[in-house]
């Protein structure tokens, strides 16, 4: 097993790390008034769609482009999808990679669905560990036939790498990883971290090692929701749900739009005047991620406060099925899907990240 630990640094994970980063951040800050406003919009969103209560609070909204396999292959194509879901945006002023008219994460979903519809076994490591560059390029071809998926050589290398681990240790299927974790969500996140390099999402900040597990948590959350619908044996036990908003990191634009996050003038000027991507692990990138994650958690707590005023009128809000982090993520995802157009990309200080981790 690949070792994820290294000596010399104390370790902080996810929300503990996010809180620490928020307290130390120099260029990113959380605005409590923005938290309250966003929480209010989330609650309005729920009340306006109360007939869809169980969908919005127990199922993650995902692109319609998600493949619809109804068997065990679903776990394997979800693994491929999330493994390849990183750095999908090109800097402003350059042509974006598009599939079926969509960009970024949605384009990746469409490309994988297209491959499955064309009977290409993109879910099978026996296939993709031997995949040629030309085959990979064909699967992820763009609408214009010219633009390539960003970091195309890195993606193929990673896909081959994770496939070899599955073939060597997990009988060639991600299902065995789920079984090895004892169907425990937190253990599965750690298994992904330990076994697959592109899921080893950590950096050093303020003398501490911080881990976010962004891609791992998004994958595990999708396995938790998508696979358990048809296969109860995939039902994962999870002790704590936290935001999966980095499944599409444009969602940060929503936090900026509602002024939940505030950037320093230095950071705003950098994003407005330079397309140079942030590197994974740099101070600014860690502050953006840490503060975003902690802000999403604060929005959840604020929504919980608002709910208390509605429970008597809407008893359904007191049900165990009400998962607030899922509701908040669904609002953010819905907002980015319907409201964030190219104009928002111009208005907000959007940053680009060069990383394989999200």
Automatic annotation (TrEMBL):
It holds the Pfam family Q_salvage. GO terms for biological process: tRNA modification. InterPro entries: Q_salvage. Its EC number is 3.2.2.-. One of its GO terms (molecular function) is hydrolase activity. The keyword Lipoprotein does not apply. It catalyses: queuosine 5'-phosphate + H2O = queuine + D-ribose 5-phosphate. Keywords: Hydrolase. Belongs to the QNG1 protein family. Catalyzes the hydrolysis of queuosine 5'-phosphate, releasing the nucleobase queuine (q). Is required for salvage of queuine from exogenous queuosine (Q) that is imported and then converted to queuosine 5'-phosphate intracellularly. PANTHER family: QUEUOSINE 5'-PHOSPHATE N-GLYCOSYLASE_HYDROLASE, QUEUOSINE 5'-PHOSPHATE N-GLYCOSYLASE_HYDROLASE-RELATED. This is Queuosine 5'-phosphate N-glycosylase/hydrolase.
